[in-house]
Design goal:
Chain A contains ten helices and twelve strands. Chain A is an alpha/beta fold and 250 residues long. In chain A, helix 2 packs antiparallel against helix 10. Chain B is built from ten helices and no strands. Classes of the chains: A alpha/beta (250), B mainly alpha (234), C alpha/beta (259). Bound molecules: adenosine-5'-triphosphate (2 copies) and magnesium ion (2 copies).
Chain lengths: 250, 234, 259, 234, 259
């Protein structure tokens, strides 16, 4: 193909870890001629990059923060693309017995009751915020020696949990792609409370004239289109599908 | 530019408000780095001297490897230590992972080559000066090394301080083996990385300034105590 | 100086902490077709030479003729490129009973006292005893006033004195000296000469390079005249100074041009 | 232990299969690190010599700060450079963020103090030797520095190589300013960090081994070419 | 040696690239109550002294009496702790017209040729010309065979020769020498003396420390006798050697004990 036009998009680690990008990017390049460069960072940092105009668009999953971002005028609009779900991971023998829990809140209560080691991202990321909302939904203020906020990314949290043989909450994509499972297993999933919505926000060209708003829009069109739907819904790791396409065509 | 100034302001604010969390983190940083420097110096300084004093077949290779190891990527070291200390690893039973000890071990691995390499260079020059005398006096290998370490102590300080600087500014390895667990293994650098990923860049920069100030203070104190750069070369 | 002579006579014995009575002599030293090279270039040799049990050998020769190289070769500091060097004892033992005073004194970054005491410390002498003996020696060579000065700040002549005391304190059986009095004033030179003669009387074999003809005449019992990296002439001092055999030695003695 | 062996196996496999992605990453690592070393040496070596040669009021402080800066935490440097190069920063118009140039800038900041500090130490000893002579000959400041750099070139190599090692093993800063964008700014260390976060520890370790091998190879080549450790001190 | 004399006579003029005819004289040098201290300890002084326009001053005195310190003080290498030192010209200009031969020769890590050429390079002489003149000087001092040897491997005497050539090549107006012949053989000493006398004849002021009485007598036009850090006696050479005024100088001349 002809020389590609280049745009940059900040994405969160969990998206990158899913491996979906490796499927989408070549297709985008093929269909639109856009070479998307992914800058992989934490949610907060991704939004910060957008606010500074250092990327042309962001793809994140932290509703409240996204809305703040829009309210401040940093982005033009928010477009939901797809979702996956969070899962609770823990030691295979499940000392807190969360596998049989009715709901996510119930599972967390059991962990707290058993004082079983729980690794938290503790980094204000989308995943971390979700985890905190689940705790508060369960009516628990997690604290004490069993609760370990590590202040790091998803991969680091999983590696830590794996080494400690602790419980941890992860997005399904990161978990499936995670290579250092040792004794960990997926113990709880499926509660709609665990939904994880990804949204696409182009950076506001009014604030940053140099951003490639044109490319950002073309990319958005592709992301909500049929090819994207097919690829996203069809993406599987170990036979499991990870993402559900839920963009609404205008 | 604004952000940078804000960062400086944050640093100042943090220090004067005597934030207890901050002081806890600083204490952990110092504890880990100073311990690592002590251990690494105890290994690296004699090793540097030994390499300066001995001529053996693989000397050049050893020195080249040592120089290369100076740049040992922290992440790799972290991984390596993680694999050794993890429950399924050979030293898993010790239960050291995610403790300050694990962080010290990782840092020792990172800074020992640095200390050994810089001290080797300093000692090599001194050895060129003392060579004939010490050989003539029939000093044993150990005596030679001791004389060089003692008489070259000022220059060796640079090596040790370089090691300290590297240790206290290190993040990749201790993140993996220490885990940056709040109130337990969080140090300045991992706190900075955390704030960065949160997008709190000014706060992160503020912590960075605190860290640099700390490193400068330690350097000045030690230079002051030892009198280097004041008196002549020895 | 009379007190010195008494102490010095036992110099060689002091160095040997045990079995002085029955111990094997270190000498003779035999060099056979010995050569020293640096990056292929021949510095000295081939040298055939025997150093007997006693005596005061003066090594002479023009600048660059190889005096320093020869002394270093005998002392084991210069690698032998060809030929052999044999002491009467196995090499490791022989190495312990020698001392060397370098042409350019090497000063450790220590005080005068500690510098002179260092050879004793190396042999395990307790620090206090080593210091006491070092202080004694410092006074003998005329450094009594400089005990606590850092060795590197000494004047040129003071450094040479320090190096001498440091070499003598261990009571070596053989002492190599490379122009040890080059920077000394007249009086110091005489005093050092007395110390050396006393050491010799005490049984220390001495091999010394010098450019000072007067000194050579005063001290030598035997002369080695080096020329172009070879032993050009050698023999008893008396004969040599009275009538050198080779024209080069004759010319050298007269300070004339030696080509 | 198994994991570690697997890592070695992976490294071996990667190299012999001539994986094009790997070679692309290696090339970028070398390009960035070598450029940074060149620039940092051009600044750090003369600076080290200048500090050795000059006596001025704040000399001790300057040297202590320089020593402290040796341990400049990469993350902080990354942040700082990010804030400068960000579109909303003072140099945003240059559009350097997330390019190799940005990574080079960050690395230059990290390794210049290291190179300056180590070279300062080496030069200081040589200056002690040459001091009287050069002063007596009335050499200008620039001439003194040039003479010291030239005659001390062997020792300065250690400084440069230390800088290279540090640069090629660096991850925190270039991650922030380079972004580890595939086929564009990904280097060995950021690739290792990425694989680690995916839990592919063996693969990450394999890349680490490749990185160390690369550093050793560069060191050996340069030592070999320069003949250090073979000939006498100069 | 006759060719040397011719070239040397213009030594001083060579050093000055411009305005040789009209230029201001560097001397006299006046020291007034000059003192040098190291960490509070008085090394020499107070010294009152005037060095006139021409002459060959020999500095003598026991080891540690302060000869080196005095020479360094005059040359500007030793910090003045009290008193004044004044040249006839402003300090920066004065500093350019001097040369100094150190007691322990300082060898740069370069070849003999490059070492000798270095002072010329510092003044901007083109490299090829500097090398040619350096080769010339190397031959004069007897280093013709060692041109491409690294300076640090030279023998003790060869290093002194190198230092001399390096000091003379720039054609200094005043030359300080600190025991420059201490490690030289008889012939080399004579040759260097000839070179120095030629330089003096060419207008170079010479101040030299030595322990060699014969040399002092051969060269001196003026003597400074240092003792305990002070100028104990000074005057024309003839008078001094014939009959030193102070008992200390007399004792020193006889190599006796000076207390
Ligand atoms: N590594 C070397 N490479 C080349 N030549 C060397 C080396 N080492 C020594 N030489 C030369 O070997 C010769 C002998 O040196 P040596 O020091 O033994 O002389 P010396 O007789 O002690 O002279 P001096 O009276 O000046 O001290 C000298 O000409 C010297 O330049
Ligand atoms: N930094 C210092 N601290 C203390 N004493 C010093 C220092 N520097 C020099 N001295 C002393 O000052 C005295 C004068 O030294 P100087 O080198 O001038 O003597 P000198 O006359 O040249 O002797 P020599 O004939 O041995 O060369 C010496 O006793 C020396 O030990
Ligand atoms: Mg010699
Ligand atoms: Mg002197």
């Amino acid at each position: 193909p002809a020389r590609a036009e280049v745009m940059r998009m900040a994405v969160t680690t969990s998206f990158e870890n899913s491996g979906l990008a490796d499927v989408l990017l070549p297709a985008i390049r093929e269909d639109t001629g856009i070479e998307v460069q992914l800058v992989v960072v934490g949610t907060g940092q991704a939004l910060r990059l957008g606010a500074a105009g250092d990327v042309d668009a962001v793809l994140v999953h932290a509703r409240a923060a996204e809305e703040e971002f829009l309210a401040a005028g940093h982005g033009t609009h928010r477009r939901e693309i797809m979702y996956n779900d969070f899962v609770l991971i823990g030691p295979q023998d499940d000392p807190a017995g969360i596998a049989g829990a009715e709901s996510a809140a119930e599972a967390l209560k059991r962990i707290a009751a058993a004082q079983a080691l729980f690794v938290s991202r503790g980094d204000d990321s989308g995943t971390h915020k979700k985890e905190l909302s689940l705790w508060s939904a369960a009516g628990i203020d997690p604290a004490g020696g069993w609760y370990r906020p590590i202040g790091a990314g998803m991969g680091a949290a999983l590696n830590t949990a794996s080494a400690m043989n602790a419980y941890v909450m992860s997005d399904r994509a990161s978990w499936l792609n995670f290579g250092n499972k040792s004794d960990l297993a997926l113990l709880f999933a499926g509660d709609p409370a665990l939904f994880n919505q990804y949204a696409y926000i182009p950076v506001n060209p009014a604030l940053h004239p140099h951003v490639r708003a044109d490319l950002a829009l073309r990319l958005e069109e592709w992301l909500v289109g049929a090819r994207a739907k097919e690829l996203i819904n069809g993406y599987r790791v170990n036979g499991e599908s990870l993402f559900v396409f839920n963009a609404v065509s205008k | 530019m604004d952000s940078i100034l804000q960062g400086l302001g944050q640093a100042f604010w943090l220090i004067i408000t005597f934030d207890p969390d901050l002081y806890e983190i600083i204490a952990m940083s110092l504890r880990v780095s100073l311990s690592a420097v002590l251990v690494a110096s105890a290994i690296g300084l004699p090793l540097g001297a030994w390499l300066a004093v001995n001529r053996f077949r693989w000397r050049r290779t050893t020195i080249a490897v040592l120089n290369a190891l100076m740049g040992l990527p922290p992440v790799v070291v972290g991984l390596f230590v993680y694999l050794l200390l993890s429950r399924s690893g050979p030293f898993g039973v010790l239960g050291l992972l995610f403790t300050p000890s694990a962080m010290i071990i990782a840092q020792v691995i990172i800074i020992t080559p640095l200390i050994a390499s810089i001290s080797h260079q300093a000692i090599r020059d001194l050895w060129a000066e003392y060579h004939d005398l010490l050989i003539s006096m029939n000093a044993t290998r150990g005596q030679r090394i001791r004389a060089l370490l003692w008489d070259g102590r000022r220059a060796l300080l640079t090596a040790t301080l370089a090691g300290f600087g590297r240790a206290i500014g290190e993040v990749g390895a201790i993140m993996i083996v220490g885990g940056s667990i709040e109130h337990s293994t969080r140090v300045l650098t991992t706190a900075i990385a955390l704030e960065t990923s949160k997008g709190n860049l000014e706060f992160a920069l503020g912590l960075g300034v605190v860290l640099i100030a700390l490193a400068v203070a330690v350097n000045m104190t030690i230079h002051g105590l030892s009198g280097t750069e004041r008196a002549p070369a020895w | 100086m009379s007190t010195l002579a008494g102490t010095l006579a036992t110099g060689a014995a002091q160095g040997c902490e045990a079995g002085a009575g029955t111990r094997q002599p270190l000498l003779p030293l035999v060099l056979e077709r010995a050569e020293a090279r640096a990056r292929g270039k021949l510095l000295i040799g081939p040298v055939d030479l025997t150093l007997g049990r006693s005596g005061f050998t003066i090594v002479m020769g023009p600048n660059g003729s190889g005096k320093t190289t020869l002394l270093r070769l005998m002392h084991g500091l210069q690698r032998l490129s060809a030929g052999t060097i044999r002491w009467n004892l196995p090499e490791p033992i022989a190495r312990k009973r020698q001392a060397y005073v370098f042409q350019a004194p090497i000063m450790m970054r220590r005080s005068v006292l500690d510098s002179i005491a260092y050879p004793l410390l190396l042999r395990g002498t307790p620090r206090s005893e080593a210091r006491a003996r070092a202080a004694d020696w410092a006074v003998r060579v005329g450094l009594g006033a400089a005990l606590h000065r850092p060795a590197p700040v000494l004047s040129g002549g003071e450094k040479q004195k320090l190096a001498l005391a440091r070499a003598l304190i261990g009571g070596p059986e053989i002492l190599f000296l490379d122009e040890p009095c080059a920077n000394l004033d007249g009086r110091a030179t005489r005093e050092i000469e007395t110390i050396l003669l006393d050491a010799r009387a005490g049984g220390t074999r001495i091999v010394m390079a010098t450019h000072d003809m007067g000194q050579a005449r005063r001290l030598a019992s035997e002369v080695l005249f080096l020329y172009g990296g070879r032993v050009h002439e050698s023999g008893a001092a008396k004969g040599f100074f009275a009538a050198p055999e080779t024209p080069e030695a004759r010319a050298f003695m007269n300070g004339e041009i030696v080509e």
